[in-house]
Every structure is written in structure tokens, then in C-alpha cells.
Design brief:
The chain is an alpha+beta fold. It is globular and about 40 Å long. It is built from two helices and six strands. A six-stranded mixed β-sheet has the order 1-2-3-4-6-5, covered by helices on one side.
Amino acid sequence: MFDRDDNGTIRGALGFRADHGEVVIHRLIVDPECHRRGIGTELVRKVLTIALRTTVSTGRQNQGARALYEGLGFTHIDDSEAIPGLWVSNYEWIHSGTTQ
């Protein structure tokens, strides 16, 4: 899923897998020149319309990403050590019947 400007230049991208009513977000990337314009938020909002449950993991120290997901109603499930010394925060979003 992509966000493009009027010239077709990609400003942001979201990689995900959808399977059996669940979405797993793998990557969310926004051009640094386009940060803080709501592009990442809009991409995540679009993917939330696909399934009833969405999960994502992000770096535990990545406060910007954590704030984005929490602001969209994701629940922090836990933190896990992906490899020694690399901690990630795991999030889940469940469709509540209301729109974000």
C-alpha cells in the first residue's frame, strides 16, 4: 500500500499480510522529508479497514511509532526480545464496530 504525491512520487509505504480475517503489519516507511504530515497514520487507517484484527511489532524504544499505534487504538500486548538485546513492543487492534 502506497501514499503518493500529485506527481506520483511515493511518500510512504505500508507492507502487510492479510490472512483469515487478520492483518499483520510488517513495515511502515515514510520519506523523512514527509514526516509529521499524517501519512503513516493514514496508511495504517486504510489497512485497519481490511480485517477484524491487526497486529504490529515495533522497536521498544521507537516512541514515535508507539505513539502512532497507541493513538489509533492499538493495545500494547507485551515486549519481547527478538534477538539478544533487541526488544520489540507488540500491539494488537481489534475492530470495535466504530470507525477511527
